Amino acid sequence: MSAAGMGEAAEKTWFGQPRGLTILFLTNMWEQFSYFGMRALLVYYMTKQLLIEQTHSSYIYGAYTSFAYFTPIIGGAISDRWLGKKKAVIIGASVMAAGHFMMAFESLFYFALATIAIGNGLFLPSLPSQINDLYGPRDPRRGWAYNVYYVGINIGAFLAPLICGTLGEVYGWHYGFGAAGIGMVGGLIIYLVGGRYLPPEQPRGKAAPVAIDGGSAVNYRSTYAVLLAIGLSVVVFRGAYEQIGNTIALWADTGINRMVGDFEIRMTWFIALNPLLVMVMTPFLLAHWRRKAEAGRERSPMQKMAIGALIIGSAYGLLAIVSAVATAQASWIWLVLFFFILTFGELYILPTGLGLFARLAPPRAGATTVGSWFLVTGAGSLFAGFVGSFWSSTSRPVYFACLFILTVIAAGLLLALDRSTRKVEATRAAELDAAHES
Fold first, then answer.
1. Which entry of 32, 169, 258, 273 is 20 to 30 Å from 224 by CA?
2. In 295-438, which residue ranges form alpha helices assigned H by DSSP?
3. What is the pTM for the complete model shown?
4. Which of 154, 171, 205 is the last residue of a domain?
5. Domain assignment present for 213
6. 319, 360, 359, 354: which is closest to 337 by C-alpha?
7. Per-residue pLDDT reduced to its tens digit, 398-415
8. How many CB atoms lie within 10 A of CB 63?
9. Which residue range(s) make up the domain with 381?
10. CA 20, 23, 25: angle at the middle one, nearest 5?
């Protein structure tokens, strides 16, 4: 953006942020609603309606979710090189909506899944990579913006099973899938109507080295090396974090006393705690970070991510102690406390990591770099599956202690990368300054 354009974006604000962030927030919220709404019904639909055997349906589910995380790296490259971010979002959202509506027809089941995953590949990296262009290179709100954006993800994830899941189970699967498709169309309409508040399209093509202050051109090899190292550290972290949908769910089912008087708390309600707590806790955390920034004591992104990993590690440490001390089933209160601690740590690391990848992206490679963050997410999910395979052969205290150790290792790796990351981030900011002045 030009300096004038950046100033204009900064002046027109909603809730103290550029108006474009609200548009991206709402678009993302409805996309997540459609994605998680369909995913909440998928296994039940396969086993109960299509009568696919459980083992085979699990393989289909795993293949679909993995494909949905790996396509963004390809879609991001297409967005940066040829389509541009705005066209990629519009095409991706349209393709995903078509895929959701295809789910209403049993004969199109596999084609519908592939269509949604392909559309997701264009949409997922192209939307958040626009956040970076709403701010000046020195604007402190740029890092916090991804925490705001992250709330949209969790609102959609929270509402999806309540609306799409209820419609699917009570009135019929196709009503649930239809609601997911309507949500995706709603997100697309918001994006199109609010397009005037979004940043102008950046030049497309292969990332080219940029000279700073008349000096030699910047070499992006160090950037890619730092991104790769951060990605590997996050994969280690996600090996522990992703257990909330795997072995933690198993422990909640068998190792937790979920009775409150004569009422039994549903296991899935505990999982819903996570997105609910994200919505509740984010405003307080952002207010805390704002005070730190105003006092000149804000931590670097890598320090925040390391702190987040350690906080999540303490949540697993709590479970190690509880499972070791409990003579039978542990109280459900401990599981609530676990999710409270885990969510607090999650807010330090996951949205910060997404924002960091966007800020470190070389010129004309924003969507591709953001796509690589989702590639890391997919790789972390695969690693979490490997870690989860030890659940049956390991005692509960030892298993949770191992998850604690994984998070400590990840925190150490992230802290070790702090100096290198700061250097690359400073270089990117200098490039943006030079571009705005030219």
1. 32
2. 301-325, 332-360, 366-388, 396-416, 418-437
3. 0.83
4. 205
5. no
6. 319
7. 999 999 999 999 999 999
8. 12
9. 221-432
10. 110
